[in-house]
User: Fold this.
Amino acid sequence: MTEERKSFTVNDRRHFTAEGDTREPEPEAAAPAPFEPASPQNDADDASSAPRASRAAEPADFGQFLLSLGAQAGYLLTPQEGSDRHEALEGARSIISILEMLKAKTEGRRTDEEERVLEGLLYELRMAYVAAAREVGT
Assistant:
C-alpha cells in the first residue's frame, strides 16, 4: 500500500478521552484570513495571469442571469428518459413566464446586449416549447 498525502486532517475536539479523562486543549491553529473581495484595479492587473475560478466572485450580471434561466428551460424542454414530460413542460413554461415578467419589469433599463439576449431567449424558448408541446400532444 502506498502512502498518499491527504488533503485534510481530522482533529478530535471532544473534551474527554475514550477512558473518560479530561482532554488537554490543543493549541488552536491560526484562523484563516477573512475573505476580502479583490479591488477592480487589482482584478484588472491579474486578469490575464490568474484563472477565472481563482479570482474573487464578480458581481451578478443580468445577461448571465437570463442565460442561466434559459439553460434551465432548455433542459426542461429536452426529453429526459424516465421524466414526466407534462411536468417538465410546465416547468419550462414557468421559466418562460419569468423571463416575460423580467422583460416587462426591466423595460427601458436594459442595455442593448441584454435586450438582444432576452429577445433571443424568449423567441428560441417559445419555439422549442411549441414544438415540445406538439410532440407530447398538449
Summary: The two ends are 60 Å apart (CA to CA). Helices lie at 40-45, 62-77, 85-105, 112-136. The CA atoms of residues 69 and 98 lie 9 Å apart.
